[in-house]
């Protein structure tokens, strides 16, 4: 009797283990198929977008609205597969493990600065392609399309004259007089691999300078949460604020907007998948009137 019970117990274990192994194997196969479906969709989408962004460069003037319309139109015509929308167990690291490691390394090297990262990719194209569109000598838009499907947009734009300069003639101002820049804006926009716009973050200001000192004027800045990012936990921290920066004997005035992101869902910023970070858009100026802008994850 005891021997029969032992045999029955062993048989039950064997059957259970076999069923579990078959179930695990089937789940593994299903996940591999899901990964292939997602990878194929992203790679095909990136190929098509590369062609469309390149074609857009033939236009003499390109504005932000045209770029966003191109992105929206592409994803409306090429919706993501259902498995990509429903899968909660997969992330971009499962689909592109090696590219994710390279992205994280590049993020560390650029110290979270999107502008630095984009300038590097302009030279190497290792992780994606950068498309630069210009409106005039100073205004430009950089669009980074990553091989993992994410899109980051960095816009540096003149949004208006400083009120102090309206009606003035710069030619007759003495050299020691206060001078003013136009109102400049830095904007950062983040899209995920589904083509969904998550949020927009921007900062703007004009500056007065005289070769010795510089100060910000007409400051503004804010963020916008988009429908696709409605569930993201976005916390505005500074909308906007000013600061004075001193580096290696040089002085700068900067205006910045900061946005805190906290959550379990990773988003791409400066090509790093983050779940908890502060994002910053800034605009700054030197004492000689040179204006610059930037975006970074802190």
UniProtKB/TrEMBL annotation:
The keyword Signal applies. Residues 1-21 form the signal peptide. Keywords: Signal. This is Uncharacterized protein.
